[in-house]
Amino acid sequence: MLERDGLGRIGRLATPHGPIETPALLPVVHPDPERQPVPPEEFRRRLGLGAVITSSYITWRTPPLRAIAEQRGIHGLIGFSGPVMTDSGAFQQHAYGSVEVGPEEILRFQEAIGTDVATILDVFTEPETPHEVAESSLETTLDRARAGRALRNGLLAVPVQGGPHSDLRARSARAASELGDVLAVGGVVPLLEQYRFVELARILSAVRPELTPAAPVHLFGAGHPMTFAWAALFGVDLIDSSAYQKFARRGRLLLPEGTVALADVTEATCRCFLCDELPLPKLANLPPTERERRLAYHNLLTSAEEIGRVRQAIREGTLWELAERRAVAHPALRAGLEEARRHPEVFLPTEPEARRAFREVDRTSRDRPAVVRFRRRLDAYRAGRAPSHLIGRLGLRPEYLRHLPLEDRAGSPLRWQMETPLGLVPVELSDLYPVGPYLGVEEFLDPPRHRPPRAVREEVGSTFGPTVDVDRDWTGPWTLFQISSLLEWQYGRTAARALAPGLTGERSRRTGRLRSIARGDTPHFVVGTEGVAHPTFRGAESLRTVLPGDSHRVTVHEDAVPFVRAGRTLFSRFVVHADPELVPGTTALLVGADDELLAIGRLLLAPHEMGKLARGVAVRVTAHAARPVPEELVPSEEEGDAERPLPGDL
Q1: Tens digit of each residue's pLDDT (9 = 90 or more) over 123-139
Q2: Last-in-domain residue among 416, 447, 471
Q3: Which residue from 68, 205, 428, 641 has the highest number of Cβ atoms inside 10 Å of its Cβ?
């Protein structure tokens, strides 16, 4: 895994014909070149699509194609030099009642023709299948998967079946994770064809937590570009598409926003390189075969562009935003996204601590997993505290805070909260993600206006009268209170009480926001734009003494200790244990077996993923103990990520 946004991830699957960069679109290629409208090699050369999927069953049952494949390989048959995945005939078996080939024979055939990713012949289970029948079919699929694993040395795709039944889907996902190199969610084509995204969301919600993070996830049949971002939210890495051909055959144009009949296109709204050659409105005048070919090409180009947008959104941390924008394309897709939000437990373990911004697409944006987690933590923060008083929206600038008392004249504490798009939020936490960087409709319908500091003074004075001292400068107490509050938010009340005494804060001159926390002249925490207090190495030393047990810690295997201590990246294979409460983006303490503080770093993987990925970075070190490692022992990044025994194998 190279980058991520929640379950969506950018990774690399190594195959004999080169790597597949994920999320990836695998166009479905007909094994008969005469029936393939766009030459597969054009996918690579002009569209940047590096992998395809084709049918081993159709190849096997068609003697002329079979002879060529056995002689020249599947790559020679379809004319494609990149990675090729093959299916096994399961859908044909479902559609026609039977196939002429057995599960072991079709797998041996895929091996013989040199497929990069072979698929077992599973039992396709309809969405309406009763539990007893689905369970029996699943047993057959699992038996075939075990036999296929014994036969196949190369990459093997194992479908996840179970029909509509969550328990069977979860069981199938666990078994597939033990046997497969690619985990393919199957039996869902009818749901996609009938726009039953709510049911599909329930299936993916049952399946996704049970799949190993070490293998890419393939969703069979999700070929329309408007579904790509939605699928990526669930961590789908591979999407196959025959939609570009099927819709072209019916004279339909695929767009990320939906589907349009070519006959209705009268304006040259697209300026891609294909439309520079021949604008869309003129396609209708071509002979049927040529019209279908060019329309299929255009559909595929649109799909390639959309999968690129998905990858870009993952890099930017805007995948939820893209999925919400795409869901507007169809009410069924919006309903599917709404169903996804009803399963926050699927997303929360990998939901990043914060993103660069939180931009509202519509009111349902306020139910994203990030908001769910914030509200839950807010409930825990408020527990045991006195009720808060409401104050109009204001920034945490010194000129406002100086007039906002933290206690009355009798010494009783006063707490303040503000109305935000996400509900009432304590003033001291209003810089935190997702509240601080929230950009929504209210910002434009009722934009915040500059409030003269005296207006705050008058508002407080009129509410409390002489019981509070509004003439005192409360800026200093507010800074100390906010420091204590942020530490409590991040590390708990006990740790905050131990750490806060003696700390001082520095605010931004431009925004008034808290930016750093120090003890004396030594910075202990840096407050990011997302409002979170991230420790420096010196701050981490203090944290280690007050945080209990494994809290906020990642334990490093002894083989990697000298390298992490010197500031090298911590790879997944060398994580012994991680605090399960951590999430990607959190700054954690990297410690040895004796709890020696080696370094601090930002998590790329979630704790449950660490150690399960044979390759990949778990934590990027941001500060370290700086003890030198002998030059001859320092590995390169590639060497550090190379095949080495897992701690359990030593």
Answers
A1: 999 999 999 999 999 99
A2: 471
A3: 428
